[in-house]
Amino acid sequence: MTKFIAIASGKGGTGKTTTAVNLAVAFNDLGKDVILLDANITTPHIALHLGLPEVPTTLHDVMRGRAHITEATYLHPSGLKVIPGGIDDLFDAGERRNELGALLLGLYGKTDLVILDAAAGIGAEAMEAINASDETIIVTNSDLSSLSDALRTIRVAEEAGSVVPGIIVNKASKNNMDLSLEDIQSILGKRIIAAIPEDLKIRKSLSLGHPVVYTYPSSSSAKEFRKLAKLLNDEE
After folding, report:
1. Which among 90, 143, 157, 198 is least buried, having the fewest CB atoms inside 10 angstroms?
2. d(CA 169, CA 192)
3. CA angle centred on 10, ends 167 and 46, rounded to 5°
4. What are the boundaries of each domain within the chain?
5. CATH classification code of 3-235
6. What sign does the dihedral 80-171-4-57 (CA atoms) show?
7. Edge-first strand listing for the sheet containing 135-140
């Protein structure tokens, strides 16, 4: 049985894509067969984070009906399977011949887990990924505006029938936390399943075109991503 998990955030800049990429690699390291899919249709970033060269077939080609979704799947050196969007493809919603939810059926039964990097916010594009997912994990920062947007995202995800197993607080360190983890948990009404620290190794790994879990496995952030993957895997 294939599980679909959306990684979502109420606003941009929270570190959502970094979280999706590294969580996917951490699951892969646990022996899961994982596909990471860039569901940020308008502004895809997965290929940039993974240093993928220009590929012949992307998710945009699949949505235009030019290819099957399995034809847009590529293997990263970490062992992770990736379905990227077209970085230079100015994709317009009016071009769609197939919606994301229908296309994901082509992955059902072919992998253990599909992680979708959703668009930021709660617009139609983000909701497309959330609606297609069994679970939605919310990524937030500790400032009040991020938490307010995260709360809205939790509500719309649950209204869509997607389970929200918990919250990831990103860029969490003693020096830049506006609120404590306990306060954040109380405001959002959901447990915090990970607090990813501010880590320069994340920026360095991004410049190398690899996830921090793969490039700097002993870094503080990589340890937290692996801890999160193990938690979710054990609960499953």
Report:
1. 90
2. 7
3. 85
4. 3-235
5. 3.40.50.300
6. negative
7. 74-75, 81-83, 34-39, 113-118, 3-8, 135-140, 167-169, 192-195
Q: Which of 135, 120, 129 is nearest to 27 (CA)?
A: 135
Report the predicted TM-score, pTM, of the whole model to 2 decimal places. Answer: 0.93
Placement of tokens 């995260």 in the chain: 150
Inter-residue contact 125 to 137 (CB < 8 Å): no
Residue with tokens 């139609």: 124
Give Cα 7 distance to the centre of its chain: 4
Encode pLDDT of 32-66 as tens digits.
Answer: 999 999 999 888 999 989 988 788 999 989 988 89
Task: Report residue 79: phi and psi, to 5°.
Answer: 100, -5
57's tokens: 């077939």
pLDDT of residue 97: 55
| Residue type, position 181, single letter | L
